[in-house]
Amino acid sequence: MAGEDAYEYTAITAPKTIRLIHISPETETDPVHFSLETSPLESAPDFEAISYCWGNDQGQHQVVCNGKPLFMHKSLFEALSYFRFPDKPRVLWADAVCINQADPIEKSSQVLLMPHIYSQASRVLVWLGAAVDPVFGSVPSHTNLTILQGLQMLPGFDPENAADMAAKTQIMSYDALRLRAEGKPNILDHDWAPLVALLRRPWFRRKWVVQEVALAKEALLYVGGGVEIQWLDIARLAFGMETLGLDKPWRLKLEEPKLDSDIEKTDTGKGGSIEFRPVFITFHLISAMYMVQIYRHDATLVDGVMSTKFFDCTDPRDHVFSLLGLGGVGPTLRPDYEASVSDVFRRFSISMMIEGKSLKLLSLAPDRSLFHTPEVQRLEDLPTWVPDLRLMRADVMASFTVRPQAFFAGGQGKPVLSVSDDERFLHCQGLLLDSPQRLATSLVEMLLEDIPEIRNSFETTGDPSPERRERRFIRWLESAYQTAFGHDRACDPDLVPELEVANSFSRAMSCGTDFLRNRLSPEQVTTIWNFIQWKLGPDANKDEATERDSTIELNYSSTTRDSLLLLSMGTKFCVTESGRFGQVPLNSKLGDRICVLVGGEVPFAVRPTGNGTYTLIGECYIDGIMDGEALQEAASRGMPLETIILE
């Protein structure tokens, strides 16, 4: 579209130099005029950085840059129009204009400076788009009021204290029901409509924004028409409600039928699709951004990748490059937009494992997607020990560096690793221990079986059917119980297993952790066993009211359910040949092997290739070997370690 007189970039040759937008004062409806001026970052004038979602309409909107036409995305065009001062110039920075996107060398060097740009900016202006939602109406302050009132309803809590969190969740749930019965304001009936309108904005799902708000001195969110929100207000609300489990009661309100543009359709690969409403998913993303902001100084680049697995990028290489400013410790990479996606993922993996001396990244490999889509297949030239970061959509058992490590299956030493010259094979020291002997049906497999019913329900009523989800949850428990004990009669007193066997089953069902990713205490293990026994009893089909009134002493049933589902959504229950209970990857099958690798946090399932090597299937929880017991036993017997080669 740009003709001969269009603006042309002059290459930046000086190090640590950026371009800044000096935008002329105009009203919001006037044409956009600005100049682009280079400046050393260290001596740059005061400026504000814009954070926005690019969109797909590249080159559709014209502005005047240094007296010549320049074309840009609609979103940035609207942002520049909105952020102009009417009476004085304003200095801004926006990546699509301030970086020559057509020059991969410049792009790579400027991406290295972006953490410094966003941390040096006086504030970050987040542009969410025009106020087209009717809910905003003529009272912009209503949105802020909704968020602030929600914050006031939240109790103080200690996010590191599982017992305190569970108690606060229970109290909040009961208090909300009591206040509702009394006709008083409560968190269940709070007017969340303005917040929902914000959560539908695509900005919240863009991976680049994590760095942009995490590094900001101050971040403000804007919607055209006068809506201005402090980022920390909405971040603390999302974190508090999700951590306390208080987002669940109003999730159902957010799942009513939406316009096609509001629905993300995920193909299941079996001729059907499940519709995910990004509204409540976005609440989780905001909470994740807040956690990154809090812990980034002590985190590694792998922590950043694990934290942002549900975010999207247009360029797959940005699954790594967009996070380079967030790794406070450990190895990192230099951005290289001339490298292929496969090369970026491979270099990232080698750097994190070999230089970082950590096997955490293996928990993400070969990928962590619950559903595979035909249009996004795993990159063929990636070894199985390299994760395809485009496909991560499930939690992992490996812990974040900033939290106490949960497991030490491979002992507490450093891994012994090497990579072949052609970067195809990863050589690890460890032990091959066991194999799955019996496999239960996973929750994901049950969900796929229910797709026709789910789709018909959404199409006719938009009903998310919590009753259907509850039946599926109980079927899942029954399948695991049957696999473990040969029957599902959990309340038959003649068939109750021994205490340690029951405890092992409970730990395996929850992958040994609670809903806060802490190791289970003995009391929590007992609670999980009681919960499962109760759910599989004769009155298994209970609604929530019955659950609340149950005479069975079950502490914090909501958080117990969360503990069971947190990590097991991406796994399936198994009994191994040696009689251990565990959770293995969804695509595991009989004949796979279970190994522990020296320095590995968790065990792994691998598949023999027949050539003396193995393909990596994924991480596991195997009860009884999560604290280095296998290596200790091998050492006591004088058994040597093996070289396990992954390809």
Q: Can you walk through the features of this model?
A:
This protein is α+β, with helices and mostly antiparallel strands. Among the domains are: 17-122, no CATH class; 443-555, no CATH class. It is 35% helix and 16% strand. It contains 21 helices and 21 strands. It has a nine-stranded mixed β-sheet with strand order 5-4-2-1-6-3-7-8-9. A hairpin with a 2-residue loop joins strand 4 (61-65) and strand 5 (68-72). Helix 4 runs parallel beside helix 8. The protein is globular, with a radius of gyration of 26 Å. The chain starts with 16 loop residues before the first strand and ends with a strand.
Helical residue percent? 25-40%
Shape: globular
Strand tally? 21
Counting helices, strands and paired strands, the structural category is alpha+beta
List the helices and strands and how they pair.
Elements: E1 17-23, E2 33-40, E3 48-51, E4 61-65, E5 68-72, H1 74-83, E6 90-93, H2 95-98, H3 104-120, E7 124-127, H4 141-153, H5 162-181, H6 193-199, H7 208-214, E8 219-223, E9 227-230, H8 231-243, H9 248-251, E10 264-267, E11 273-276, H10 278-295, H11 301-307, H12 318-321, H13 341-355, E12 417-419, E13 426-434, E14 436-439, H14 443-449, H15 451-460, H16 466-485, H17 499-509, H18 522-535, H19 544-549, H20 557-566, E15 571-576, E16 581-585, E17 593-597, E18 604-608, E19 614-619, E20 621-622, H21 629-636, E21 642-646
Parallel strand pairs: 2-4, 3-6, 3-7, 7-8
Antiparallel strand pairs: 1-2, 1-6, 4-5, 8-9, 10-11, 12-13, 13-17, 13-21, 14-15, 15-16, 16-20, 17-18, 18-19
Helix pairs in contact: 4-8, 7-10, 8-10, 17-18, 18-20
